[in-house]
Amino acid sequence: MAGKRIARYGAWSSPVTSDLVASSTIGLGQIALDAGNIYWLEQRPTEAGRNVLVRRGPDGDVVDVTPPPYNVRTRVHEYGGGAYAVRGGELLFANFADQRLYRRDPAGPIRPLAPEDGLRYADAVVDAVRQRLVCVAEEHKTDDREAVNTLVSLDLSGRRTRQVLAAGHDFYASPRLSPDGKRLAWLSWDHPDMPWDGTELWTGELRPDGTLVDANQVAGSRQESIFQPEWSPDGSLYFVSDRSGWWNLYRWRGGKVEHLVARDAEFGLPQWVFGMSTYGFESADRIVCAYCTQGVWRLATVDTRTLALEDIDSPYSDISGLRAAAGCAVFLGGSPTEPVSVIHYDFATRRFEILRRSSDAVIDRGYVSVPEAIEFPTAHGLTAYGFFYSPRNRDYTAPDEEKPPLLVKSHGGPTAATSTLFSPKIQYWTSRGIAVLDVNYGGSTGYGREYRRRLHGQWGVVDVEDCVNAARYLVERGDVDSKRLAISGGSAGGYTTLCALAFRDTFSAGASHYGVSELEALVRDTHKFESRYLDLLVGPYPERKYLYRERSPIHYTEQLSSPIIFFQGLEDKVVPPSQAQMMVEALRGKGLPVAYLTFEGEQHGFRQAETIRRVLEAELFFYGRIFGFAPAGPIAPITIENLES
Fold it and tell me: Over pLDDT 90: what percentage of the chain?
């Protein structure tokens, strides 16, 4: 340890600053390939979270396609995704401010395509044969009635009125046209199912006039989740299904469904947003795909003739948004030491090329903590999973006998997953001497359908048990300080955080980022996509109203004994500010230390650089005051009520 300074865990000075995290990092998403061009979206915190469509041409030049003030983002399902489509250089996209569809010819101006009628659009595909757009539409009523989702077509010239192609189901997604334009495939599902619980895959014939006839269900049910239907160049329909217990690749042709790759691995994802993709066609004979085992992603190819799966040696352990074309694949890739980037893979040279990094900041490896994949025992003799990041800073060591505080991260969803992907936000903590444990509790994806369904009827129980047992596991290993355990999460992860603090005594501090505190309020005051989600996670409402009360932290504030900090966007439609406000008032009344920070202009999830910066520093300041260390560097203080008491 020669040359290292001695300082308490949490008080180490770090080059991974909040400004670096907030200002030098962008979000990357939705890749599209078109005529040799590569497109992707960039979410830029320094532009108030604006989503910008970027194009990289065959010559390597990279340009912004959508200038300010356009923000390429749809609010269908509130979470959005699938916000643009491109074909032959013609761009069609949803603009966040007015939710209208806009069109831009290769060298022309941007002009509106859809009328200003309040509808929202997503997941579009261009029907070149009929010169129209086929997409999901969402109509929000002026009264209290539920929004209506349909599949529609929009004439690209704007001369013909919108045409409804499919209606009657609660939700639609993934409209995909066959190569000859004669058939359409799509997904549908109904309340109370979510798309990772049960969906139906349909196909139908498109007549020359654009009407859809002879619709037939190909696969899916309430017990089978279908993901990403795609037509191959030879006209066969492929899709991912979890009918085996794992999301595997299947093919439908000649009226029969074939299981292409039988493996205990996940080739699919929970469809929280539109336009997700884990595979594409390099040719009719070769699929490029990504699959996940034990939380780690791999790149591979599948020969559609022999059905042989062959791994591609890749430095990336997190892969998403994969698209393919002749001779190449493009995807979002990252690793424990490399942030997510847009990656191009060339089959001829077998080389990977980074086209765009999410962060240009260079962080010395001496400040980077590499995750350890852990398996730990949890309730009922089961096993759960997570990734442990120990403190790491080449300049510092802690006093002898001191163990680091632990920050347990509970991911959102709750049907989602954490991964080994390099996260500047996690390194912000570990480089300051705070250990981090990112938990994939029961209900997370990446471990098969059975693991995902552990949360059915058990939200607020299984997730909490797993987070508690994960922390205890590290305490028993001797890695962390048992008296300085904190838990933090956003959205559903915020709910798990609040439940852990109300119903267990393991954690001595917590942070809720736009978290749920009262389940009945969430049922009454949330958007359509998740309005029946709790039927499966908790139970039918109001038939099991008692369970909703039993698992709502707001009703058990007398059991709270730990300080909590709350962060809330004031325009959040998914988890309204009232959820945080109720908990804050309860802690104030009880005399527990509490801090409450709200942010104008932020929705569900923080996108603006100043918000991201403020949240990181405030949470660090809060733990410093609670756990008794002084964070290094200038950090704006926050008000912590009842701190002295």
Answer: 89
